[in-house]
Amino acid sequence: MSTNEAPLALGRSFHQALVSGDWDGIRALLHDDATWTLPGDNAISGTVDGADAVVERAQLIASYGLDFELLHILVSGENMALSLHNTARREDAVLDEYLATVCRLRDGKIAAIETYLSDVPGMNAFFV
Question: Gene3D superfamilies per the record (predicted)?
């Protein structure tokens, strides 16, 4: 596998596990000390530490009924990012945001995730 193929495959696996609710699959892609940082001031904001906490955050986000539309998987020599369009609706709020979930890789697994959002106020209103 070329140096760009491994991050690309990891990105595909992460997205597929997220949309299918394969929490063990996500856990297998993470280092034990993985972190995930999200902006905003809401139920999913801040940094979580440890692979189990990263999986719990993914479960919490998915519990809001999001559609995680994959636009692109972007790769560098050593890392990858998912370009997503996330949408969801509930009675009192609509989520419609574009984001980049940047994954720093170490030895073929995700060591750190940082998410960049197009609409932090909209995210704050949705994830209460």
Answer: 3.10.450.50
